[in-house]
Amino acid sequence: MPSRQILIFFSDTGGGHRAAANALRDAFHFLFPGEYEITFVDGFRECAPFPFNHIPDTYFPLTAYAPHLWGALFHSSNSRLSLPLSASFDDFILRSGCARVIRARAPDLVISVHPLINRAACNALKEIDPDTPFATVVTDLFDAHGLWFSAASDLVVVPTAGAFERGLKWKFPREKMRVIGQPISIKFATHAPAESQRALRERLGLRDDLFTILLVGGGEGMGPLRAIARALDHAALPIQLVVIAGRNKSLYKYLTELPWQIAVNVQSFVNNMPDWMRASDLVITKAGPGTIMETLAAGKPMLLSGYLRGQEEGNVKFVQETGVGVLRASPHAIVHQLRAWLDGDRAQLTAMQASATRAARPNAALEIAQELVKLL
Description:
This protein is α/β, with parallel strands linked by helices and about 375 residues long. The chain contains 16 helices and twelve strands.
């Protein structure tokens, strides 16, 4: 039996929080086999009363059909005046449920990878057992929401220097923060020999003689993937296109039934994303933090197709200031940029690829796990 219990609070508001939790779990199991039992708790579904336990169900329709409202909610809750009210409200609806789960699990370490659950889970733990450590793993790359820093965490791990500065802005103690990176799948880590791009393409059924573009929208297949794919097909560029539709079944069906003019490979949800990224020359994605950091870990330049107002605005800033990609927020602009690169000088692509390799933190999940065990 594992000797120690680790409890990770997350919620399925988008795929990034679960992906971070999965990465941390796999890192613990890889580094310390058999030593830790990892339990996930969706803080809203399992700890919040009705109707707040349905918050995860509202995330996709709200962000997909009312992005301006989502952005307004993000910014309106993230000021000096409003943040204490937001934190207190989250604490009010979640703390008793978090306490119930903590008592039942009796963990040796509690981790939060979700800003809205952060404070309530920490307060519940400190009331039950002040000696049990609590850690926060931030998954906003740059403009991290103040709720990430609203708990009395023993350790806050942030992905970038920009997020660290946000923590200082919200008066979180400098000595309790570490800049390590975003926890992404350990399949991106450098502990195994890399397979050549040629070999990867052969194994994945891709051609080796075409510039290969990977189009993704996260695990849920979010964003204007249909419009982008059709625009690329109509442009008749000398490319090979891979589209990962994720769990979006209607998107997968639509794309697989199209009469394509260019070479296309359409996949649903995949468990080998590192292979598809490394087999590609360029990744087109929305500005989700997990996919951005995975793209960097694969050493690929990226073309951002859009961003979620509020939490992903800083991600765009991070990508552009780091020199690893550009934002082109319409299918027409994406095609125009690709044509400029493919028909002209590819120096910018080469420079972005070099910058991606420098900015990559492929071992972040492993390094975070190593830092977290120091709390025990």
